[in-house]
Amino acid sequence: MTVSHKPTTAATEASSDTATQSPAERSRALRDTLGQFATGVTVITTLDTAGQPVGMTVNSFNSVSLDPALILWSIDRSSLSYTAFTECERFAVHVLKGDQQHVSNLFAGRGADKFGQVKWHSGPGGIPQLDDCAALFHCRRTQNIEGGDHTILLAEVLEFAASGGEPLVFHRGRYRALAGE
Length: 181
Ligand SMILES: Cc1cc2nc3c(=O)[nH]c(=O)nc-3n(C[C@H](O)[C@H](O)[C@H](O)COP(=O)(O)O)c2cc1C
Hints:
- The chain is mainly beta.
- The chain has helices at residues 23-34, 82-87, 101-107, and strands at 39-40, 42-47, 53-58, 62-65, 70-76, 90-95, 120-122, 128-130, 135-147, 150-162, 169-171, 174-176.
- The chain has three helices and twelve strands.
- It is globular and about 55 Å long.
- Flavin mononucleotide binds next to strand 3 and strand 5.
């Protein structure tokens, strides 16, 4: 049987076509195509060098290794929180629940007063910890890896806990609910 690897009609809403696309159009098409990959949504928090809480919404979070326990995520070089995260010793990853879209929107705001509008406390190492989430990972940053306009942060998981519940899902630029089992 011959298997075709050509994109189907359904998959060609966005595509790479250097002959007709401007760099901006190609970038938009790449973004749209990457957006087909559904992810969970996290809020990642740390302290800046002045000891102020810092946090941002992140969906590039992923598992790397079980032994040793490693995770990664990538941060845009233009984020206001860039220096805080790329130089911190520790950070906390909060996996959001399905009903926490407002928390995702809050922490996706640029430099907004994010911590005045959610319940949180100081967790291990003084790192800000949101009071409610589906899962929590306290991490020690181990490596920064340059990745174009982002920097990949690799980290060791020190502590973790899960409270379960339906997760918040992000797909094609929108929040979604998980389809029933
Ligand atoms: C669902 C979602 C996922 C996001 N994932 C990331 C990510 O993985 N990395 C990143 O740098 N920004 C990501 N962002 C954008 C940041 O949350 C946003 O730029 C935020 O304003 C950064 O805050 P800051 O500029 O105050 O540091 C995401 C935003 C949303 C809504």
